[in-house]
Task: structure prediction
Amino acid sequence: MGDQQPLRDRLPSNEHTRYLRAAEDGLLGYGQTGNDYDLKSGPQMAALAKIAAHFAGHYAGRRPSA
Amino acid sequence: MVAYSSLFAGAGVFAGQGYHCAVTRFPGDKLYLSSASPDVPYCDSCPPGFTLGYDHCKTADTVAATTNVSLLVTKARERATASTIDSLAALASRRVFLYRGLNDTTYNGGSVRATTDFVRAFLPDSAVQFEESIQSEHLLPGINPHLCSWEEWAGPDNCTYDGAYHVLSWIHGASRLAGGRSKIESAALWSAHGRTWDQRPFWDASRDAGLAESGALFVPPDCHPDGHTCTVHMFLHGCDVDDTWSTSLRSGGASTNGRSATAS
Result:
């Protein structure tokens, strides 16, 4: 499988350290999207909500209970 | 989870910053000419022509003070009152797990503690778990052998703590994971039950959502619209993650712990 090859073999040594990162807050893009980035109407927030609602409808069938 | 608290049951935060923190000026924050910090074009309470440094909440000590976290709490309350985010009352019944590895050099200790303080302003203490005793670096720790064969997960405790298990059991309850981890190797699981899907229909093309055009979807075999009811997890990766993303997604544990449909 291709992604089993260590990154060290595929990247210049001074670049692979920047991949020493995994999940953070995941909310990218505030630099590009302005002051609505964390409002419901912000393009990323609205998209994430639509995606969540879409799959919840398919596989959970309901909103989370209290 | 803050903006759409009516929709999300909980959150797992691996080294994340608090709501609105990135653009909030705290007492003591260093200011930059806007031209010198173009990645932060908007700043709350900065004088005209000035802004904050990029990612100041990860590294600056100014956010850590409880009095400063209250600025974020106040902002969230103002927005809920204005209905630009969901009512914050729903958060009282949510559950949140936060994590920062002791060897994390990207987020200082106070930064994630401040995020925890923000969450605790809205959730009961019993619903908030902050794990900060594991000797890992800045990553999502896991125990999958394939994940741990990567050099990025080499190092103390990067591969001794099942981060996905702890998040899922905290939010949904350990009984939901009583079946244990899947015995099937994760690559085989994904080959049989994973697929990519087109995310573009979920946003207005005229506004950049900052999301990839395609996402990955994992649906366990006994999770079907006409059968077993499953929970849905959204797995968002961190800044600049690229080559390690598929490995983290497939082998990080979200698809091998219990029954869940994972969209990312």
